[in-house]
Every structure is written in C-alpha cells, then in structure tokens.
Amino acid sequence: MDVIVITAIIAALFVLLGIAEPLAGRLRLPYSVILAVLGIFIGGSASFLLRTDLTDALNPIAEAVLNFPVRSNIFLYVFLPTLLFQVTLGMNLRRMLDDWVPIVTLAVVAVLFSTVVVGGSLAFASGVGLVACLLVGAIVSTTDPSAVVSIFRSIAAPRRLARIVEGESLMNDAAAIALFGLLMGFVMRGVPDPSLWDALRSFPLLILGGAGVGVLLGQVAIMIMGRFGRHELAQLSLSVALPYLAYIAAEQVFGASGVIAVVAAGLTVNVSAPGALPPAVWQNMKEMWELLAHWAGALIFVLAALLIPRLLEGITWTDIGLISVVVVAALAARAVILFVLFPLLSLVRLSPPVERPYRAAILWGGLRGAVTLALALAVTESARVPEDIQRMVGVLATGYTLFTLVVQGSSLRFVIGRLGLDKLTPLDAALAKQVVAVALQTVREEVQQTTENYGLSREIVRSEAKIFGERLEGAVKAAENSAEILDRDRVTLGLIALAGAERDMILDRFRERAVSPRLTDRILSDVDRLLEQARQSGRLGYRRAARRAVGIDPAFKFAVRLYNRLNVSYPLARLTADRFEILLLQGLVLNDLDRFIEARIRRIHGRRVADVLHELLHRRAEMVEQALDGLRLQYPGYAEELERRFIRRTALRLEKREYDMLFDEGLVGVELHTELLQRLDRRFAREDKRPALDIVLQKAEVAKQFPLFSELDEGTLKRLSRALVTRYADEGDVILTRGTTADTVYFIASGAVELRAARQSWRLGRGELFGQLAMLTQTARKAEVRAIAPSTLLALDEQRFRRLLRRSKAVQKAVRESAEKRGIELPELAATKPQVAAES
Q1: How many CA atoms lie within 13 A of 121 on its CB side?
Q2: What is the pLDDT averaged over residues 640-652?
Q3: Highest-confidence range of 166-175, 282-291, 308-317, by mean pLDDT?
Q4: Position 484 pLDDT exceeds 70
Q5: CA 203 to chain centre
Q6: What is the pLDDT of residues 722-754, one digit of tens each?
Q7: Could you please report the per-residue DSSP string of 657-700?
Q8: Where are the transmembrane segments (predicted)?
Q9: How many CA atoms lie within 13 A of 21 on its CB side?
Q10: How many CB atoms are located within 10 Å of the residue 731 CB?
C-alpha cells in the first residue's frame, strides 16, 4: 500500500479519535463503545461500497481501509505493552493492597473459573474439542474495564469500586493472555484433550519466568535512568523502550509470558522510579504514558472494530445460539465469583466486604473489547489452527464482544444509576446546601472588598449586590429547611474534609520538593485510608487508620528481624530513615490542619464539631511525637539533621519563588532567570540526597537516657549497650504470653504496654521495665503483655539482667516497686549475687 495512503488513513484515525471523545460525552456513553460503533460503521461501509454497483468512486478508499496492514501481532506487540505498562505506572499499589483479595480473585480465580465454565458449556453445546472451547473461554475472559472506570470517574462513584475494577483490568489481562498463549500452543500442535494437565503444570513456569524477566529489566532500566541525571528526554526514551524489550525478551528468548513481563517491569518502575528520578521527570513520565496509552487504546479499538464485519461474515443461527451460550456462561461464572465466593471470603475474614451494589456494578461492567478482538484475530490468522476452529473463535469472540459493548456498555450508566452509586446520600445532600450557603457568604465579603479596592460605580455595585443577595438568601433558606444533620454525622463529614485538606497539603509539599515522590505515594495512601475509614466507620475508623499510619508495618518488622538475626542493616536503615521523614512531615501537616479546622470547618459544622476534630488531631499528634521520640532516643541527632534539611529546602523553594516573581514582573531577563534557576537546581539536587543513617544503634547514648542506668559507670554502660537488643511492637501486638518461660527482660524506650493478669491490669510507659518478676521467682509467666501504642523496647537476656541487677540499686528499687504493685513477694535481691557469680 502506498505510503501516502497509509499516512492519510493514520491521520484520519486520529481525527476520529478526537471526534469520538466529545461525542461520547454528549451521548453519555463509554468512549470505547463509541469507538467500536464508529469502527464497525466504517468497516461495514467499506465492505458495502465494494459490493454495491451504486458507485465506484469511493472504491479505492474502501479498499485502502479494508486492506490496511494491521494484523494481530501489531495489536499484541505494539499496542498491548503500551496499555499494560501505563496502567502499572498509574496504580497506587499501597491502596490496591487493601483490596488485594477481591482483585486477585477477579483477575486470576475468576479468569480460570470463567475459562472452564465457558469452555465446558461450549464443548457440551457444540461438540467441538474441549481444548479449543477452553481457548474461546480464555479469550472472552479478558475484561476491558476502562469504559467502566471512565463512567465511575465521571459520576464520582466510590473510589474503592474504581480501584477494584482498575486492579482487575491489569491482572485480568495478564492472566487471561498468559492462559491464551498456553492453550493456543496446544491447539496449534493438535495435542489431544487428555494432555491439558501438561498445560496446567507448565502455567506457573510461564508466569514466574515472565515476572523474573520484567523485574530484572525494570531494575536495569531504573539504574541506567538514574545515572542519566538531568537528561530528561533520555530517561523518557528509555521508559518507552522498556515494555517492548520486556515483552520480546520474555516471549522470544525465554519462552515465558510477555504480558506478565510487561506488568512486572511496570510495577518495578512504579516502586523504584519515584526514589531514583527527579520529581519532575517522574511526573512527566506518567503524563507521557497516559497520552501514549490513550492513543494505543483508542487505535486498537478502532482498528479491531474495522475487522468485525469480516469476522462475522456468514454468521448463522447456530452461531447466534452458541454466542448466547457464551454470554450466559460468562455472566453466570462471574456472578458465582461475585455473589458466592466474595461473601465466603468476607465470612472467613480473608477479604473486606464488598457491598452488593458494588458487586452488581462489577458484574454488568465486565465489558470485553480490544484485547478480546485482538486475541480472536490472532487465532484466525494462524495457519496452524484448523479452519473450523478459526471460524468458531472469530465468530464467538466477536459476537460476545459486541453483546457486551452494545447491550452492557450502553446500559451501564443506567444500571449504576439504579444501584444508587451516582447519587448523593441524604446526609451529603443536606451538607451540600450548607456548604453553598457558607461559601456564598464568604464570596460576598470578598467581592465587597474587591469592589471597594477598584472604586467601581456605586450603581453597578448596588445592582449586582442585590442579585447576589437574593441568591445568598435562597441558599440560606435551603440550608435551614434541609434535613437536620446529627453531630455524629457532622464529625464524620468534618473528618472527610480534614483528610481531603491533608491530601492537598501533602501534594503542595511534594510540588515544593519538600518530600520525595516515593514517600509522597506512601503518605497519600495513608491519607486515602483515613478518608475511606472515616466514610465507613466515622470517628472510630479515622482513629484506626491514624494508628495504622503511625504504626510499624510488616516490611519494617521484617527488616528488624533481618538486622537482629543476620546483622543485615541496609533495609532497616532505609525504612527507618523513611519513617523519620514521614513522621516529621506528618507533624508539620497536623499543625496546619489545626488552622484549617478553625478557618473552614468551624464555619460549616460549628464549634462543638471543631472541638472534637481538634481533639482527634491532638491525639494523632501525640502518637506521631511519641514515635519520633522513640527514634530520637535511638538515633540522637538524626532527626535534627532532617529538620535542618527541611529548612534548607524550604529556603530554596522561597528563593525560587522570588526569582519567578522578578521574572514575571520584567525585572529579570530570560538569560539571568535561567542561570539563577540552574544554580538552584544544583543546590536542590544536593539537598535531595537524604543524610545517611548509621543503623548501628548508638545504644550507649540510648542507655544514658534511661534513669535506671544513670548510676552505671562508663565501662558497664558500654557492655550493657552491646547486650541490649532492639525490638519494635505495634499497637495491639502481644509481646509476652502467659505460661511461657521467663528468660528476657524488656526496658521501654518509647511507647506504652499493658500487663494483664488475674483480671487486673497495669500500664507501663517509657523508662519502665517488665518481664523480670517471673524470671526472679523462677515461675512461668502469669501475665500477658500487649503494646497499647507503637513502642520501642530494649531486650536483655536473663544472665546479663542478673548482673545488672547486682550492680544497680536503681534497677533493684524499680523491681521491688513493681513487685509491690502486683502483690508479689520476691527473695532478697542481694541473694542473687552468688547465683550471678556462679553464672559468670
């Protein structure tokens, strides 16, 4: 085909993409549905023009459209990696982890189950071989939730629903395409049905091999991009090459799944790039990939839709009956997963509950699209697949895709509306009226001030003020006549607003380069959790999420175990430095939120609600400060270094603002402004490097701050510091259980614990010890000890504790007082001397 013709068709396709989006908005239909309809119309029109005798003038255009050189390998090797890679870059992995069970269930379990149900039903109805029918089942199991997500976003549907569907879209395509590749190989080799077990056995290797290739190439790409420094275009170019290299290497070199390799490479970049690349580069990279994915997704839809008339050529009533079997079987399989398996997972507490309206929306929103058509086209183009199977796959996959797009896609917005997912709750509706009234009052004050400053005509000001006053009066009456909002609900709404303000403040700090992108993603995930928990459970949910944000996560605990048992310090050093920086930022933001409550929330919800919010914030601030105290105790001076670094970065940000203002005012020329910004960039780059943290605990300094160790001499203190082992406990963690052997004593460096024994409880805080009484009385532990706040503990074994007890009167006094509180008689502590001497 002539190059000019191909160029003209490509240009026309981009014109089509530009027209389709506003058309979809006007018709209130998913963008992908409009693209499919336009593609089918163009393909059908081209076929009609070639067959009709009405005119021959348009035949060259029709032939060019139908013979456009696009095959399935273009879809799979060019468009698909782009789509998958962009989805992984845009995912909030930490928030996805909160719903990983329903996401994995939909993306993996549902794919396998749907493949088996559709394949089995089709084999029973058609009499075709099971492996070929399973191939059809794998093809139609790839959902296209982009249309659903776009609708959810346009109607402000719950974030959790969009998050589950987005997570399914990524992993679903990967699992279904990997399964398709496996079954396709067996169909092409003509392997009989009994060998299907061999396919299932090799499936894990296909997945693991692809994941390994993707992770490896992703790490190599990040390492190279990090060395390119300020060469942003080179870094962006490498990111474009990465998914294609991963796909080709996995498929052609290692015989693994290229789709899994692309997903693994994208997830690797998602996790590692924010800490390795400058914030501006990372942001530009995500924006570039959004545009590339938009083009790729739209083009694959249009080009695949052009082929639908050809794929459905010669369709019979038997084919329509088999398409109906596929439709019923696919919907039934998805319904079983959503309405049977999901409740069971929630019942056994393996997954948070997914509300019934959510499940109904996910069921009807399982649209099939470009990927399904591309896989079906790959089958029809393979000369090694029997012709009857080619035709069956092409007709059934295409027919089912049309059903989901035309029937489900066009009615999806209606279904979401019927489920009530697009409506404000009565509480939100009542609040909206109050918000409008308060906002208009503020606007009136500011407009009045503005008109006075500009000295506008009094008649014009008076006329406009009258119109605005009528609107304000109507808003106030509507707010007064709305349903009464309970204080409890006002607190919930205030917490939601507070979490939203916190998110905006953190994003502002990110734009000001006060915090790295990698930590920003983590902090924003915690804020999103605050918001969702406040929506679901009000004040209790907010407190629970706040404790989790300050607590010790599993990765940190694992790093502590690595250090304590294997002396591997790097993971703990990195995570501890992260924790320092996050806690410092949280403390700064919490101070700003106090002012936000007074400036904004109190005007809407009143003083009583504002006081409750202040109290909740103060509790969060206490938890943050307590956690920081524990870190400062272990690493004296490091928090001070971070605070100094924050001040220096703030000064650089303000300096940049001044240069920009001078440039905007024309007082500084372009050349000078560029030179000044380049100097600032170099200084920013130096400050971007966080000071190193020496994880080898300065235990001697820590020990000096304990009142119990104050009378020890330098030599004893150094020996003690080497013997102490650091332990971390999150709120709710059980540190000691009843009936265990007493062989360790714990000193509380920060935090607090609670001892429970015989229906009594005692609380201990910083500077106190526990675990010594059972040891000294040589009995099994009778108390359970649980952390009631994130705590840092210093553990000492029995032999060394007895030595310490012999030498320290302060420790002896603390042990006696502890025994008296609990009514336990101890032997004379001096009597432990012979035993200690014998032990030593």
Answers
A1: 21
A2: 81
A3: 282-291
A4: no
A5: 28
A6: 777 878 777 778 888 888 888 888 888 777 888
A7: HHHHHHHHTTSS-HHHHHHHHHHHHHHHHHHHSPPP---S--HH
A8: 6-24, 31-50, 74-93, 100-122, 128-152, 173-191, 203-226, 256-277, 289-308, 320-348, 360-380, 392-416
A9: 11
A10: 19
Q: Is 764 helix (H, G, I), strand (E, B) or coil?
A: strand
Give the torsion sign (CA, 226, 228, 229, 232).
negative
348 has pLDDT over 70: yes
Fold of 72-418: Na+/H+ antiporter like fold (1.20.1530)
CA distance 357 to 354: 9
| Per-position DSSP letters for 494-561, written without gaps between them | HHHHHHHHHHHHHHHHHHTTSS-HHHHHHHHHHHHHHHHHHHHHHHHHHHHHHHHHHS--HHHHHHHH
For residue 834, what are its two tokens? 């012979």
Whether the predicted pLDDT of 587 surpasses 80:
yes
Q: Which range is most confident: 9-18, 326-335, 471-480, 702-711? A: 326-335
Residues 6+ away with beta carbon under 8 Å from 637: none
Are 69 and 6 contacting, i.e. CB atoms less than 8 angstroms apart? Answer: yes
Give the number of other CB atoms < 10 A from CB of residue 18.
11
DSSP 8-state symbol, 148? H
**Counting every residue, how long is the chain?**
840
Q: How far apart are CA 52 and CA 488, in angstroms?
A: 71
Sign of the alpha-carbon torsion through 820, 822, 824, 830: negative
Cα 540 to Cα 491, 530, 543, 610, 800, distances in angstroms: 11, 11, 5, 17, 43
Tokens, residue 603 = 């005007």
What tokens appear for 804 in the block?
């310490």
DSSP state of 636: T
Domain with residues 699-839, CATH architecture: Sandwich (2.60)
* Of 541, 527, 537, nearest in space to 497 by CA: 527
Taking the domains of the chain in order of start, what are their residue ranges?
Answer: 72-418, 426-481, 487-635, 649-688, 699-839
Distance (Å) of CA 3 to CA 14, 68, 69, 296:
17, 11, 11, 21
Distance separating alpha carbons of residues 439 and 433, to the nearest angstrom: 10
